[in-house]
Amino acid sequence: MTENYINVTFLNGSNEYIKDEYFEKVKFIMHVVTRIIISIGLPLTLMTIYALFSLVRKDHVAPIYVINLLISDLIQLCCMLIHETKQHESHTIVFYSYYCGLLTSVGFMVCVSLERYLIIAHPLWYRFKRTIKNSVVVSVVVWLIPPVFFLTVFRWFTFDVARSIFAIFLILPFPLFIFFLVGTLRALSASVSVPSEEKQRIVGILVLVLLIYTLLFLPITILFLNRNRSDRTLTDLALMFAKLSPLADLILYVFFRKASISKLFTTVNSQQNTSQLQA
């Protein structure tokens, strides 16, 4: 009986050692991947922001939300960099700053999708509302929501409740992305003057935003909603997917070129004017 007890104890200890060794390897891989994301994402994001700033002209507001999206990505990358340097004395500030950037990123993804939807589905309304002032006001509101959330909700509720509320905030844009995509597809199907290349570009932006959100943000949202996070591997994967979002957002730059945006808006306006004359 004593021998059996020793064998069981030895096996359990061996299993714990194997488990700890496995998680150490996973932790090492996560550190390597995170540093690769930082080394690629930081310079490319800075270069892309600079390139998009050159597109901002009078009465040309399309890149503003994308610029803000990339700035929120820049905040996330900087927080990851500080965390990787083991600056534990600033852990709390880095934690809140990172998730503020994450929540802000989702907010500007909604703005990007909404803007594309309005250009196609409601061009006349958008024509009179597309001012730099309105875009700046919307951007300021999006930037203010995350810090206000953390300064209020995280002080008034327990951590588990606050985490669930945070997850609800993250999941609310999901039906909006689907609505914008479906609404834009319907409007484009009735449009005959918009070139097929432009249609593909518009749909590509909306599909890309939806894919980024679904693949990279939904896992961490489910993670926050699940209070019994016993599987550390799934937790690490969900956090790693969220860290990949700054790299995925860089792809949006391909779809935001001045010529394409100007051509698209001119085409939509000409189609609307022609319809009014015929009526």
UniProtKB/TrEMBL annotation:
Gene Ontology, cellular component aspect: plasma membrane
Bilayer-crossing regions: 28-53, 65-83, 95-114, 135-158, 164-182, 202-225, 237-256
The record's Gene3D superfamilies line, in alphabetical order, gives: Rhodopsin 7-helix transmembrane proteins
What membrane topology does this protein have?
Multi-pass membrane protein
What are the residue boundaries of the G-protein coupled receptors family 1 profile domain, all occurrences included? 104-253
GO MF terms here are: G protein-coupled receptor activity
Q: List the SUPFAM superfamilies.
A: Family A G protein-coupled receptor-like
What subcellular compartments does it reside in?
Membrane
- What is the protein's major site of localization? membrane
> What biological processes does GO assign it?
phospholipase C-activating G protein-coupled receptor signaling pathway; positive regulation of Rho protein signal transduction
Q: Which InterPro entries match?
A: GPCR_Rhodpsn, GPCR_Rhodpsn_7TM
User: What keywords is this UniProt entry annotated with?
Assistant: G-protein coupled receptor, Glycoprotein, Membrane, Receptor, Transducer, Transmembrane, Transmembrane helix
Say which family it is in: Belongs to the G-protein coupled receptor 1 family.
The protein's name is: G-protein coupled receptor 4-like
